[in-house]
Amino acid sequence: MNENEKLICNLMSFINIKIQTLDQLENKEIDRDILKSKTIIKNFHEYIPKLKTIYNSDMFSCLHKNSITKQKQPAVCMLRQLLKANNYKMEPKIYSLGYNKTNGKKIVRRTYIIKKIIT
């Protein structure tokens, strides 16, 4: 296992996905609300110096200093960009949970499913 695989496996451990290789990522589902939590964003942001040793910050906007303030969902962006660099993609999936009885709004749960990019 090379260094970038180790870093991605460590990032996945922050969101309670335990893997040893990137091949185990296939068809894993990640809840978007987990990636939007402040602790996950903080943990991902602290990992940027380690990621900069492997990846060039010119290629990834998630490695810029101001990524937390400029991006709406910095953890989602970071994970998406790193996975794409390693031939994986995050496909969004929306589950409808019905409607709110008081205001009639639709209740949804958003997740991402990790798929291998076939080249």
Q: Tell me the β content.
A: 15-25%
Radius of gyration: 15 Å
Distance between the termini: 21 Å
Q: Identify the overall geometry.
A: globular
Describe the structure.
The protein has helices at residues 3-14, 32-35, 38-46, 48-52, 67-70, 74-85; strands at 29-31, 88-99, 106-116. The chain has 119 residues and is of the alpha+beta class. The chain has one domain (3-116). Strand 2 (88-99) and strand 3 (106-116) form a beta hairpin. It is globular and about 50 Å long. It starts with a helix and ends with a strand.
Question: Can you give keywords for this protein?
Answer:
119 residues; three-stranded antiparallel beta sheet; 6 helices; globular; alpha+beta
Helix and strand arrangement:
Blueprint: H1 3-14, E1 29-31, H2 32-35, H3 38-46, H4 48-52, H5 67-70, H6 74-85, E2 88-99, E3 106-116
Antiparallel strand pairs: 1-3, 2-3
